[in-house]
Amino acid sequence: MAQRRALLNEIYAPLKKFEEGSKEWYELFNSGKVWRDYYCPFEWRAKDYEYQEKNIHYLKEIDLLSTKSPIVKILQNMIVNFSHRSCAIEANTLELSESQEIWDRLNKSYNLNNLLKNEKFPPPSSISSSDKSEKEIIEVRNHLLATYFIYNTVRKLNQEINIDGIKKVHRIMLKDTPMENFCPWYNRKNMQQAGKFRTFVVQSYGDPFTVYPYDVEVPALMEEFMKFHDESKNIAIHPIMISCRLNASLAHIHPFYDGNGRVSRSIMAQYLICNGYLPAIFHQVKREDYINSLREIQRGKDASLLYDIVISDILSSYHAHNKL
């Protein structure tokens, strides 16, 4: 598409300062700075501060509720809901009761810590009576275990996530799926493996104007992502809003060949849990609305759509649990 080519030329125009293939050209290209400087995924804008000021009463209400709620118990009960909804956003059709059955059987029959340590997971037939596809059962099984891994890392081990942790989450998510080991059709020698950054170019099939960075830019951009993650505690922005930006920026970097949405939502949940909040479950949120809210941020327009979705969702979770 001519418009997409024009957009790519606009984004990567700074490379034209150097001869293509020169040392300087490669250094700039591999640094990720060209893509980063165009999209500015790690910068806070006046709009963000204005949004926070306008909606501070909702954020303060969540702060108050978070101090009154038994977060550990609630989180244990939310593992299934979070994993189920995250898979549903990606078109998984299992019912919540079917996801609950998988979780119950995992807990009853297996040592979850050993499963995660050895990364050998039980087959669908041993954890589900559903007549849905094995692929969908495996997706939910994997997400449940990835969520448990995050919960264990943050709440029990008191550790924040790092790049190795993000890669492990991805490896868990894709375990035993057709995408665990994958070769693009145009290069059968370029094997992609779960838990490793992609080494080929990807694009959004739903939106030709969403531009993910080239694979050679990913390692440097992920280092910047972690810096953004680690330094966010020092800025005057609410953790819920920070978590939204972490989700959007990681999904935009698209570091893996598959599973980026599930991983991004999981890292968002990790950040919220680490800061004493419940994760966003995305109750009743349509996939198209969720994707549109990410695109608004990624195009540098406005983060308010995602902020609204997440704040409303987390408030609903607190109110629902306080009624129990």
From TrEMBL:
One of its GO terms (molecular function) is ATP binding. Residues 161-312 form the Fido domain. It comes from the Eukaryota. ATP binds at residues 258-265. Keywords: ATP-binding, Nucleotide-binding. The active site is at 254. Coiled coil: none annotated. This is Fido domain-containing protein. It comes from Rhizophagus irregularis (strain DAOM 197198w).
